[in-house]
Amino acid sequence: MTNKTLPGPNTKSMIERDHKVISPSYPRGYPFAMDHGKGTEVWDVDGNRFLDFMGGIAVVATGHSHPQVVKAIQDQAEKFIHISSDFYHENWIRLGEKLSEIAPFKEDALSFMTNSGTEAVEAAIKLARYHTKRSNFIGFTGAFHGRTMGAVTFTASKAKYHSGFYPLMNGVTHAPFPNPYRPVLERRKGEDYGQAVVRYIEEEIIAQILPAKEVAGVLVETIQGEGGYIVPPEGFYPALRKFCDKHGILLILDEVQSGMGRTGKWWAIEHFGVEPDIITSAKGIASGMPLGACIARKSVMDWEIGAHGNTYGGNPISCAASLATIELIEKQYLKNAKEVGEYAMDALQEIQARHPSIGDVRGKGLMIGVEFVKDHETKEPAKKLTDRVVDLAFERGLLTLSCGQSVIRIAPPLSISKSEVDEGLSMFEDALTQAEKEMK
Ligand code: PLP
Fold it and tell me: What is the reported pTM?
């Protein structure tokens, strides 16, 4: 709990300096200026303690500054910080071996390392075009894949991500993401909503707009993140896989947010029993060191020398942090994400029963979305209430982050304990009670 007025004086003065020199494009939610963190706890520059339920947007998988990750970074920094990706080093190769081991394909995997999620998506787009010799793609409404020119073309969670940046990449057609809480298409008898969306792609997009033989890939976030933490229905991925196989189209899964153990399995797609052709990873992969990866089946990553590359790919410090992160996830946090995730989900469903403004609670593992509505029948998004809950939670000492139109995402470090969940959710419910009173 904080006991001071926020923002404190040190935070205020930092924000003033920031505004003079840092790009105004960064979306800043509330005035939090970090001093240090340990596990799920963080402190601001005025000495206030907070619980972190967003984990740096689902990044600090092992918690803030896990000693094993810090040690791996220090050890590597003392040996060497950089050697261009034109050469070889041990941790890069070990990371490739590890990713091949955990990749959700039976086939061996090859990895292209990047510095961020958006670059991993760019690599996937380029690889899909290169491998299939086709140009077009299918993406989804509500998607977030990053902000570089290719990735941002697929991004469709907010129109402002495109505003002022046209022309975007050629060749992307969007289908509705199968959001079971807010369906926009009719279902036929015997179909779940995921299967209905794939039928729409086949009957409306492929048959009428975009010939299948021109389509290189379907790019989709396995569980939609920024768009509202949306878990598609069971039937979606099996039907999508069938559709891709029928037309020789690559299934590309963006697991930048949902991967690396966040859902209680290495990859969210493992909940659906389907193998993709390419996956992208970043965020949790190195506990906060900049690293991403485009991981593909060996038979798909067939580009020639020089077709794609970068200066910092396989950065030694990021790779060292990633290996330490993966070891921790494997040994402890995969299990913790599942167990504590179920615990948090149960607790949130109990809170939902007490608060009519919560329309839906959904997710897998520690990727949980709480959607606020004005009315259960109309499902009109309660945007103001959502923003107010985020602010009031902050005032009480809880860091959260919204997504979609009126969703708060619960994406803490995978190391979070049940008692921290209790502490955080008590602040969350208190904030919600207050916000509900104010909105009456
Ligand atoms: N893909 C998904 C699913 C994401 O959530 C994000 C970032 O939020 C990205 C891609 C882009 O990652 P980055 O911000 O590291 O470029």
Answer: 0.97
